[in-house]
């Protein structure tokens, strides 16, 4: 093999590595959640477009939770922290704030073995607020002080727990088949 062929192969491998790195970085960064601020009065919509119903009007300087930095039709998927409602706002009305760190330690406590393959999780909302729990793409609603058992698929679970007036709590947990789990939702307050 001559030197020209070796140099050409090295060049191709470098290009492939750069492309793979770019794709991986794009995938990781697009799912990143952020805090944000409404910079001018904005329509808060049910979907990502002006053809969708308006949920409410969001006022300037309102702090919001941006589900992902990736937009759909130039709209961010957001949660109005004050009301805990999820919807969409045009990106021209939003200023990105700090990134939200995902909890990687897991929140679901392993309880006991089960005869069922799919893990069952007993979730207790220990607060006086209604709580929303999203596990992968399924949304569960909880009343104040309510306990429910939910069945999930074994493997990696991306979760988001939120309540009115509370910054959503996000993370990833792994559930084993043939086990039951539990989780208690509570609100942590910190003084600055």
Report what the structure shows.
- The protein is elongated.
- 15% of the residues lie in helices and 44% in strands.
- The chain is built from one helix and 15 strands.
- The chain is mostly beta strands and 192 residues long.
- The protein has one helix at residues 3-30; strands at residues 34-38, 42-45, 54-58, 63-66, 75-80, 85-90, 94-99, 109-113, 120-125, 131-135, 138-142, 147-151, 155-162, 169-175, 179-185.
- The model is unreliable at 11-30 (pLDDT under 50).
- It folds into two domains: 34-99, Roll (SH3 type barrels), CATH 2.30.30; 109-185, Immunoglobulin-like, CATH 2.60.40.2190.
Main sheet makeup: 5 strands, antiparallel
Total strand count, please? 15
Please identify the structural class as seen in this structure.
mainly beta
The order of strands across the largest sheet is: 6-5-4-1-7
CATH architectural label of the largest domain? Sandwich
> Helical residue percent?
10-25%
Which CATH C-level class of the largest domain is it?
A: Mainly Beta
Q: Tell me the domain tally.
A: 2
Q: Can you tell me the CATH topology of the largest domain? A: Immunoglobulin-like
Query: Radius of gyration from the CA trace?
Result: 21 Å
| Gap from first CA to last CA | 66 Å
Silhouette: elongated
Detail the topology: elements first, then pairings.
Layout: H1 3-30, E1 34-38, E2 42-45, E3 54-58, E4 63-66, E5 75-80, E6 85-90, E7 94-99, E8 109-113, E9 120-125, E10 131-135, E11 138-142, E12 147-151, E13 155-162, E14 169-175, E15 179-185
Parallel strand pairs: 9-15
Antiparallel strand pairs: 1-4, 1-7, 2-3, 4-5, 5-6, 8-15, 9-12, 10-11, 10-13, 13-14
């Amino acid at each position: 093999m001559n030197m020209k062929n070796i140099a050409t192969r090295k060049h191709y491998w470098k290009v492939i590595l750069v492309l793979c790195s770019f794709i991986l970085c794009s995938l990781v960064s697009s799912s990143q959640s952020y805090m944000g601020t409404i910079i001018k009065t904005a329509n808060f919509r049910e979907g990502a477009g002006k053809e969708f119903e308006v949920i409410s009007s969001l006022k300037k300087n309102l702090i919001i939770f941006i589900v992902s930095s990736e937009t759909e039709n130039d709209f961010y998927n957001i949660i109005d922290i004050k009301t805990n409602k999820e919807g969409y706002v045009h990106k021209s009305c939003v200023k990105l704030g700090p990134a939200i760190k995902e909890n990687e330690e897991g929140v679901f406590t392993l309880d006991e073995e089960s005869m069922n393959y799919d893990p069952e999780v007993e979730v207790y909302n220990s607060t006086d607020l209604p709580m929303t729990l999203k596990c992968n793409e399924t949304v569960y609603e909880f009343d104040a002080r309510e306990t429910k058992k939910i069945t999930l698929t074994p493997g990696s679970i991306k979760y988001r727990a939120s309540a009115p007036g509370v910054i959503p709590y996000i993370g990833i947990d792994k559930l084993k088949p043939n086990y039951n789990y539990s989780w208690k939702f509570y609100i942590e307050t910190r003084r600055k």
